[in-house]
């Protein structure tokens, strides 16, 4: 057939191209047979948010765990993770070639994206290692490898939780005003644990007088503040040879004594202050010459957000959030600036708020380990240790602390102090038992505290309310508050025993918990009044006994109404510490509106009062008149930082490691609100708006997480989830955006 010259040319071209294609394919196969790597087809987004030992930025951090844990965030587009491959290498170059010469996990069929323990060759102190990870998504398609991250190994220490680094912020004044007599008044906007940096150029040797403090009075720093509100005057020598000075703040005798947490030598003496004054400055001082050098733990402010239709609630949230960040300066949770000593109850409240505000867990872990060797004297404080362990387990899924301290933690439950009906009394604590708790002093004794401060007669202070913060609580050997917390400890220990596969212990603690619950509801519940009394042998009922029973789910259905009404009748008859359990009780009882009323109150006993009197961190007490030696920088006063996400929005981990979240909003009279809550799997984002009679929720769930949204049991409500009609009760949400409409 005559195809013509053009067609013949085209066929020759196709023949040549076919030859080149076959040659390329053959070469490709030969190289593959010789072990040359063939690029894998990549379909999905890479993992994000890589951490080692839950530390996000390992620059300047030394890892002390010889088998550190790795975590990452699964992208929403993956829906869930079916498998992962983790590579650890001795150099970034090896890792760029996908070679894990230190550890190559291979493809591991596992949905876990956190707490993945290292299983490679032994890591060497002083060495830096590099790692990356990829995942297989819900459809079993591979992602790209993540970016490369590094970590450095430190010397082996007694503990197992690596310390995160501190962060230094350079804060400029919001106002600097020149006054008469060569003086300046400076406001940094917020108090911080800080020192002052001054740039000052002088032509002769001279001395500046510098004052720093937390409180103003009549427009100047209060030089005689009450209690532990901070103030200091420092004489600062200056000379022509220098132009930058760090204020030599004098250490405080009380917060640097034995037992106080010492700061590293590399950090100057810090004091909480917002205001500064400089006198006798013969040369001009400008705003850029003054810096507040503020120290705090590693912090990402973008990890959490909250706003609502209530401006007071927003202000309360802001002061509480800032307080939690600002008080992390010591590397472990401390009581504030007066003593700088870790206390178990303070630390638990601090931990709940820290976890609710930032994806940061190392500080809590180190504080937990600290308490195992450095206990404090209040009975209830010992019972807070298991609560800290459990919160860490729920938020991270990590069992390392439980495995290490399980046997010692048994003593912290105080179960050894029980009598035949299971109830405990601190009076039964012997010197031998105190030693088991970790007390070194043979004279140490437990003492029930209930709340703090105690009554006026016990303190010598002139208090605004003679009963102190205890609502007239009557102490007896069998104390209701103590036994409610003890019951919760038994529940936790039963769960931990299950984690560690100790069936005999599971049975022991479950059986004992049932016995204690029965005894509390018979021995300590007054049927006639429908409330819990303060203890065996008294008919007095306080807010504390009833809010603790409700907070720890001890109240039977038949008594919830009477106990709930009694709790509401007492108002805020507890301290800022007690407010944690009061709000827990109210949300457990479905009293979200009353809880909102308390958080937005403008009375003296309110969070707003702390703002009104001029503090930028939460106080140790509602006001100085309720505890005259209070400080203005106490994290246990920041309860709304955790109760807004955990109670108001009802966002909590249902299972360890946040594989499943529960969301049970109790928003009360709010007409709109939005929140961002950090989790180890990524951020949960939620919005609410009331549109006429329809409540609209938009909930965004991160990848590798499921969520259960509780819409309640209003039988008249019409419920739509992503355009589909749903029944009452629990809605199951998937990663990504979920829109819920509830119409009455």
UniProtKB/TrEMBL annotation:
Gene3D superfamilies: 1.50.10.10, Galactose-binding domain-like (2.60.120.260), Immunoglobulins (2.60.40.10), Maltose phosphorylase, domain 3 (2.60.420.10)
Keyword Disulfide bond: no
Membrane-crossing segments per the record: none
SUPFAM superfamilies: Six-hairpin glycosidases (SSF48208)
GO biological process: carbohydrate metabolic process
Stretches assigned to the Alpha-L-rhamnosidase C-terminal domain: 650-722
Catalytic activity line of the entry: Hydrolysis of terminal non-reducing alpha-L-rhamnose residues in alpha-L-rhamnosides
Source organism superkingdom: Bacteria
Domain named Alpha-L-rhamnosidase six-hairpin glycosidase: residues: 304-644
Enzyme Commission number: 3.2.1.40
Annotated keywords: Hydrolase
GO molecular function, one term: alpha-L-rhamnosidase activity
Record's protein name: alpha-L-rhamnosidase
Source organism of this protein record: Maribacter luteus
Organism ancestry: Bacteria, Pseudomonadati, Bacteroidota, Flavobacteriia, Flavobacteriales
């Amino acid at each position: 057939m005559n195809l013509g010259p053009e067609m013949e040319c085209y066929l020759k071209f196709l023949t040549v191209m076919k030859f080149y294609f076959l040659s390329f394919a053959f070469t490709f196969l030969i190289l593959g047979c010789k072990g040359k790597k063939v690029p894998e087809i990549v379909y999905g987004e890479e993992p994000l948010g890589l951490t080692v030992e839950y530390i996000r930025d390992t620059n300047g951090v030394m890892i002390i765990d010889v088998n550190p844990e790795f975590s990452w965030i699964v992208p929403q587009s993956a829906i869930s993770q079916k498998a992962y491959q983790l590579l650890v290498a001795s150099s970034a170059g090896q890792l760029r070639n996908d070679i894990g010469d230190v550890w190559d996990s291979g493809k591991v069929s596992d949905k876990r994206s956190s707490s993945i323990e290292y299983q490679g060759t032994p890591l060497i102190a002083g060495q830096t290692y590099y790692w990356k990870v990829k995942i297989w998504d819900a459809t079993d398609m591979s992602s790209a490898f993540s970016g490369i991250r590094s970590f450095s190994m430190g010397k082996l220490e007694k503990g197992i939780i690596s310390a995160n680094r501190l962060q230094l912020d350079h804060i400029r004044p919001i106002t600097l005003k020149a006054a008469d007599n060569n003086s300046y008044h400076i406001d940094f906007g917020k108090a911080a644990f800080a020192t002052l940096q001054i740039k000052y150029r002088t032509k002769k040797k001279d001395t500046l007088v510098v004052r720093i403090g937390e409180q103003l009075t009549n427009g100047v720093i209060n030089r005689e503040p009450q209690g532990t509100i901070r103030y200091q005057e420092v004489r600062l020598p200056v000379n022509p040879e220098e132009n930058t000075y760090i204020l030599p703040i004098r250490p405080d005798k009380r917060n640097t004594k034995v037992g106080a947490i010492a700061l590293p030598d590399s950090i100057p003496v810090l004091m909480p202050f917002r205001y500064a004054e400089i006198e006798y400055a013969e040369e001009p001082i400008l705003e850029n010459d003054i810096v507040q050098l503020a120290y705090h733990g590693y912090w990402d402010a973008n990890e959490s957000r909250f706003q609502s239709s209530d401006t007071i609630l927003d202000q309360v949230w802001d002061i509480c959030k800032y307080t939690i960040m600002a008080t992390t300066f010591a590397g472990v949770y401390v009581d504030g600036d007066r003593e700088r000593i870790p206390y178990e109850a303070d630390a638990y409240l601090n931990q709940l708020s820290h976890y609710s505000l930032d994806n940061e867990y190392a500080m809590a872990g180190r504080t937990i380990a600290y308490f195992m060797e450095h206990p404090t004297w209040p009975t209830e404080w010992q019972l807070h240790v298991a609560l800290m362990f459990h919160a860490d387990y729920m938020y991270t899924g990590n069992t390392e602390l439980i495995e290490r301290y399980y046997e010692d933690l048994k003593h912290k439950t105080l179960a050894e102090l029980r009598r035949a009906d299971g109830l405990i009394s601190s009076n039964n604590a012997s010197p031998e038992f105190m030693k088991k708790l970790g007390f070194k002093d043979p004279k140490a004794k437990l003492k029930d505290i209930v709340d703090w401060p105690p009554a006026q007669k016990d303190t010598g202070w002139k208090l605004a309310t003679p009963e102190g913060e205890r609502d007239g609580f009557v102490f007896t050997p069998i104390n209701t508050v103590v036994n409610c917390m003890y019951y919760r400890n038994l529940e936790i220990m039963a769960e931990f025993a299950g984690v560690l596969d100790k069936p005999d212990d599971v049975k022991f603690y479950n059986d004992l918990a049932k016995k204690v619950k029965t005894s509390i509801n018979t021995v300590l519940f007054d049927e006639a009044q429908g409330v819990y009394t303060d203890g065996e042998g008294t008919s007095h009922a306080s807010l504390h006994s009833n809010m603790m029973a409700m907070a720890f789910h001890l109240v039977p259905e038949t008594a919830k109404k009477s106990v709930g009404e009694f709790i509401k009748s007492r108002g805020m008859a507890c301290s800022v510490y007690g407010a944690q359990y009061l709000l827990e009780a109210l949300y457990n009882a479905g009293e979200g509106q009353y809880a909102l009323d308390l958080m937005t109150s403008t009375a003296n006993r309110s969070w707003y009062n702390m703002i009104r009197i001029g503090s930028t961190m939460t106080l140790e007490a509602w006001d100085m008149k309720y505890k005259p030696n209070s400080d203005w920088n106490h994290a246990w006063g920041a309860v709304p930082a955790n109760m807004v996400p955990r109670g108001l929005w009802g966002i909590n981990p249902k299972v360890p490691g946040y594989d499943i979240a529960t969301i049970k909003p109790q928003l009360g009279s709010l007409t709109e609100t939005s929140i961002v809550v950090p989790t180890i799997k990524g951020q949960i984002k939620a919005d609410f708006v009331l549109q006429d009679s329809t409540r609209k929720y938009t909930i965004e769930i991160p990848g590798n997480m499921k969520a259960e949204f509780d819409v309640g049991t209003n039988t008249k409500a019409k419920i739509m989830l992503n355009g589909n009609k749903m029944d009452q009760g629990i809605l199951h949400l998937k990663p990504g955006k979920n829109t819920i409409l509830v119409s009455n």
